Protein: DUF2490 domain-containing protein
Amino acid sequence: MTKLRVSFKFWACLLLGTTAYAQTSLTPAAPWGSWFIGTLILPGGDKKWGGFAEVQARSNGVFRQFFYNEMKGGVTYDINKNFTVGMAGGRYATYDFQDLSAGPLNTEGRMWEQLIINQYLDRLRFEHRYRVEQRWFTFRDGTHPYRNRIRYRLNMFIPLNNKSIKDKTYFISIFDEIFLNPKGPTFERNRLFAGIGYQFNKHWTAQIGWVNQTNYSPASFDKGIFTPIAHSGKNNIFISWTYRLNSLGSAEKLPSSVD
Structure:
């Protein structure tokens, strides 16, 4: 019964992501960009307490027109192999890539709390991540709005040349994440990822893949004119490097993205 529930959750979430991508494809072809992620992971595993620090850069074109960066860090606690809680925060900045010297169009200070539930089914590994975010913005025009957001991500890993993800293991990673706004519009964003990774040893892991991010704006009815839900999507090349400061001993830790 547990396997059946997990399978249902996974395929339902993957269908949601696929639907989002199909809707995006009805609009003009989404441009391609790039995401670069570097992450430092503190122990965790057998040591219970852990943490991370991460930097990220995104570009409007493939390896060019950089317009966005993130710097974030946090602490985690492994309740056991299957449950991890965490708290973190970061700074997020968006620029006009044509005029970087003018400074950011907006900056965001963000904090979040999250729960991660891992499931190990033979060669399949599932990660359920539940996150609640508090977000403070500063726009170039001087406004300072505040927003909350709820996120759920289902990530599936498939080790290819070993039964578990350990040294010298190739693996496939697929995830879909939905972003919800408590005040509406409720469905704000969908993020779909597929890629391949390699864990070199107990310290280094690399992943490369494709990520599609689709944003949604609400439908409206004004002066007798109905405007349906609008959406815009963007495809990106995804490249990440992760360094784990200390080895995990006998513990297997899923190589999931912090973002």
Q: What stands out?
A: The first strand starts at residue 32 and ends at 41.
